[in-house]
Amino acid sequence: MRSIIACGMVVLLALAVAGPLLAQAPVNVNTATASELQAIKGIGPKTAQSIIDYRTEHGDFNSINDVTRVKRIGPKTLQKMIDSGLVCNPSAAE
């Protein structure tokens, strides 16, 4: 019984350590399609379309914080999106 519990603890520890490594690839807010944006936590169809509409009207986002200019996206929502892999110009330093 102790070995079963020990094995369970090892599995849980391994998942806790590996979880961030298994995260999805970053999604660039300046190039992503609506379906790619919807893979990010906190972005549904309406928000994805709002991001694309904003991008079309105003051009690319200069920094990830500029995403809060999109309707329905505040600082807390943006942080959840960043934590889920949303990036802005991933090859440039922010």
Write the layout of secondary structure elements.
Blueprint: H1 2-18, E1 27-28, H2 34-37, H3 45-58, H4 75-83, E2 86-87
Parallel strand pairs: 1-2
What can be said about this structure in brief?
The protein is mainly α and 94 residues long. Helices cover 47% and strands 4% of the residues. The longest helix is centred in the first third of the chain and has 17 residues, at 2-18.
Distance separating the two termini: 51 Å
CATH names the topology as DNA polymerase, domain 1
Mean pLDDT figure: 84
- CATH H-level superfamily: AF1531-like domain
Secondary structure: helix percent: 40-55%
Question: Which CATH class is shown?
Answer: Mainly Alpha
Shape estimate: elongated
Low-confidence stretches at least 5 residues in length (pLDDT < 50)?
Answer: none
* Number of H/I helices: 4
The largest β sheet comes out as: 2 strands, parallel
Question: Can you describe what's shown?
Answer:
With 94 residues, the protein is mainly α. The chain has a single domain, classed as DNA polymerase, domain 1 (Orthogonal Bundle), CATH 1.10.150. Helices cover 47% and strands 4% of the residues. It has helices at 2-18, 34-37, 45-58, 75-83, and strands at residues 27-28, 86-87. The chain has a two-stranded parallel ribbon. It starts with a helix and ends in a 7-residue tail after the last strand.
Question: What are the main properties of this structure?
Answer:
94 residues; mainly alpha; single chain; elongated; DNA polymerase, domain 1; 4 helices
